[in-house]
Amino acid sequence: MMFNKLKFLLILLATSLLSACGDNGSSELTEWMANVKKETKLSIPKLTPPKVFVPVAYTGKDELDPFNSSKLLAVLARMKSDSTHGPDMDRRKEALEAFPLDSLKMVGTIEKSGLKQALVQADKTVYQARIGGYIGQNFGLITGIADDGVEIKETVQDAAGEWVERKVKLELQESQK
Fold first, then answer.
1. Any residues with CB less than 8 A from the CB of 113 and at least 6 apart, and which?
2. What gap in Å lies between CA 15 and CA 41, rounded to an integer?
3. Could you tell me if 130 and 111 are in contact, meaning their C-beta atoms sit under 8 angstroms apart?
4. Which residues are 101's β-sheet partners?
5. Distance between alpha carbon 28 and the CA centroid of its chain, in Å?
6. Mind listing the pLDDT tens digit for each residue in 107-139?
7. Tens digit of pLDDT for each residue in 9-49?
8. Domains annotated on the chain, with CATH
């Protein structure tokens, strides 16, 4: 009986191995691929010839080197001496220069000895500002005081690093009751 079971298992194993060797549709696939290879035409475009390189002689070897540090220092010194629009960095700062201009409020004017002065509030403190005084963080010089506002000439750097002047006005803030 044991021999019959063993024989049955061997026959079952042999049939399963032989069934795996059969054709499962792959011959149709191989035939289709062969037909496609025959019908497909291969086209390779011609390469364009490379550009012709024309050498150019360097004629700047006898001129000054643009990257020479002494040349750069000379240009910077000339720019510093020409800079008449730059602010005076050596002067003593005034109290209103500690605040950005947009945080300041003009709350009124007073007149002392015939000179009009503006009353400017920063935080909760009121300061007196006169013509010729400085205000704001952009080197703002007070050029005029009127009942409706303070005219200021600020000195700021543009994108190129040059000092330019711009005029702004700090207008009177009406009190809210």
1. none
2. 45
3. no
4. none
5. 61
6. 999 998 889 999 999 988 999 999 999 999 999
7. 778 777 776 665 556 667 888 888 899 888 888 888 888 99
8. 95-171 (2.30.30.830)
